[in-house]
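Appendix C reproduces, verbatim, an entry submitted by the partner laboratory led by Prof. M.T., so that reviewers can inspect both the input and the predicted structure.
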Amino acid sequence: MPRRRRNTQIPKQQAKTEVTCPEAQKIDDSPQAPTYQYQHFIPRFILRRFQIGPVRSKAERQKEFRLTGVDPEYVHYYDVATGGLDTRPIGKVYGVPNLYQDVHNIENVNELEAKLADLERQAASIIEDLHKALPQGTFTLNRRSLELLRKFLFIMHYRNVSCASHYFQADHPENAQARQWIESFMKSKGIQSAIETWLYILRYYLDTSHSDIMRDAAELIDEYGEEGLQKMMTESQIPPGLEHYPALAYRKQADNYFLSIWEAVEGEEFILTHNGFGLWEGLAGGFPDLHRIFVVSHRVAIVLRSALLRPELKSLVKPGTFRSSLLNANPAPPTPIYASGGNSIRGNFDSARSLVRYRSSQEGGNDSFVFKITKLTRPQTSALNSVVLINVNKTGSLTFLSREKMLRTARAFRSSPINFPASELLVSLIARLTATMETEVSALRPPLQSAAAVPDQDVDALSLVD
């Protein structure tokens, strides 16, 4: 399955072309659901973190819409293709009509959208609690909430429209090792296209619990071994009979990265882009994925950092092994608090399945994890924004909260020679923000008066010069 994330030092990932639509539809999971629906790949609850003006409750939004017929939620939106900067309704950005519709589900073609909405509701509650915890500097999650958050992050990247047509495209160059598996899977399921396969696997991820997906992956690991699976995926062919092959991608993100929470420095903000969920950054010995970045608000980014960068492993790594623009940030892995009261998990975990069994047990579910929120410096905040900005492409878009801070960020990004030619895509944004800011400053100045209008006073000509 091809990657849709990129490092700042390799060719850009493919991204989507923005599509606007006449009107956003309310999710309806009944059998009479409409055949047209504008379906977001960036959830509304995240977009509201970038909303212009006060954030209203659902009841307030519905009341205002009934009275005015106008969507009361807007964000700043920069369209790279046109160079246009305007404000747009949240209901009409970062989505595609009918993206998750399953035409084979006669009872409800929009069932997957309803399942995504349910996952979003649960994740929104966790992310809301995270923002409330920012002043304390720490955030605690029990194992089940952490698993749900990890599942949300994985699906947030997988669900992106840029993945839809290529993730399971049998003849895609990056799918060479998986071609036989894809063709066999499609035939066995009666699937006709790569997009249908993508939707089928999306349903698997949504319908299957975190624990069960991890169990599916563990069975493959115990059967073939880590090295055997790695060899299949890089040197030979994925066996057509591997029913739960997609579980391995999920397991990789869940087990090979520790979750960290990064807060932007005071006075600066993070930026949201069309492809800003699951962007990968950094190389380890030439292999990608040191970091996976998920911007969830203008204040917070959740960053999955490779386990190779855990503090206890640093002394074992040769100098120069890692290449990354984010190494100056030093997030600590979460501190586990085991239900047993001990310093480690009790038991003999001699197989991948035995560890999964503990984690899915009632005792494992009572474990909790304390995250120290990493408060970034100004250069560190700028570095993360640079990774996000360098991934913006000619058909992309970006959203921000403060025009002043966006202008400062864009200028800083463009001032670095390493960011050429990527920064060329921001020239129009910089020009439009500059013009807007200058207009606002001029409007705040008092009108100039001539000397004749101020009798009996000496007027210094320099006092009339800005």
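The longest strand covers residues 287-295. Additional entries are available on request from the coordinating office.
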